Amino acid sequence: MSALVRRVGGSIARHLPAVLFIWAFGFCAFFYGYLVGDNHWFPYQALDSARVAAWMIHFKMDNGRIREMGAFTDIEPGEGRAQRIVAEQEVRDDADFLLTGGEGQYLEYCPEHGCAAVILRRDGSLVHAYPYRPDELSTKRTMELPYQEIMHDDAKDTAVFGIAQLPHGDLVVVYDYQGTSPTGGGISRIDKNGHIVWYRRDYSDHWPTVTEAGEILVVSHTIEDEEITIKLARKQSFTLACPCSATSSACSTSTAM
C-alpha cells in the first residue's frame, strides 16, 4: 500500500509543474482576454473586424433577405394589403396618405422591384405609385462617402426609411442600409416615375423635412478618427473613441469624474 502511495505521489510531483504551468497560462490568457474586451487592447480590432465580417458574409448568403415588412410579421401578403388602411371611426378628412415602400413592397402596383412609395386614398385605392429602381442607386450618385461593407447589394440591402413630398410631386427619399457601417444609406430625389434625379450616399438617415424655403433637413453622421470629449456636468466628461474604419461596434466610451 505504501509503495502504491509513493508511486502516486511521485507521479503527481513529476506532473505538478506542467499542470501548474498550464493552469497559470490559461488563467493569464483568460484575464488578458477580459482586458482586451474591456479596454480594446490588441488584438481586439482584428478579432472584432473578423466577427463583423463573418456575420455579414453569413447574412449575405441568405438569398431571401429582401427588406419587406412581411418578413417580420405573421400577416400574409394578401391579408396585409386588405389591412393597409383600416378606418376605426368616421372622420371628416379626405386627405390622401403618402406611405413608404421599398424592395418587394406594393408589388401589385410596381411588379418589378416594388414601389419606393405610394399615395393611397382612405379607402385603400391607389392615387399614385413611385416605382423603386435600385439599379439607379449606383448610376445616379452625385456624392459618395466610404462605408464599411461586404458584398453590398443595392436591391436587397437598401430600405426606404423616410420620404417627403416636393411641391411638383417629386419625392425626397432617405435610405437605410443593412449590413454596413454606418447604416444611414444617404438621400435622393426621385421624380413621379421613380427615376432618381440625384443621390447622395452620405450617411443621411431617418425622416427628411422640407422647409418653406425649399431647404432639406435630414439627420446625418460625421466620422472622426480621434477621441471626442463631451462635458456632461461639473467635473464630469464623456469620451467617445472610434477608429477611422467607422465600425460602430469598435467604439469605446469612458466617463471621467
Question: How would you summarize this macromolecular structure in one to three sentences?
Answer:
The protein is α+β, with helices and mostly antiparallel strands and 257 residues long. It has 5 helices and 15 strands.
Task: List the main descriptive attributes of the protein structure presented here.
five-stranded mixed β-sheet, three-stranded antiparallel β-sheet, alpha+beta
Q: Mind explaining what this structure looks like?
A:
It contains five helices and 15 strands. 27% of the residues lie in helices and 31% in strands. The chain has a five-stranded mixed sheet with strand order 4-10-9-7-6. Strand 6 and strand 7 form a beta hairpin. The protein has helices at 2-39, 44-60, 77-82, 136-139, 154-157, and strands at 97-100, 115-120, 126-131, 141-144, 148-149, 158-165, 171-177, 180-181, 184-190, 196-201, 205-210, 216-219, 227-233, 236-241, 252-256. The chain has 257 residues and is of the alpha+beta class. It folds into three domains: 26-61, no CATH class; 69-219, no CATH class; 227-256, no CATH class. The chain starts with a helix and ends with a strand.
Write the layout of secondary structure elements.
Elements: H1 2-39, H2 44-60, H3 77-82, E1 97-100, E2 115-120, E3 126-131, H4 136-139, E4 141-144, E5 148-149, H5 154-157, E6 158-165, E7 171-177, E8 180-181, E9 184-190, E10 196-201, E11 205-210, E12 216-219, E13 227-233, E14 236-241, E15 252-256
Parallel strand pairs: 4-10
Antiparallel strand pairs: 1-2, 2-3, 5-8, 6-7, 7-9, 9-10, 11-12, 13-14, 14-15
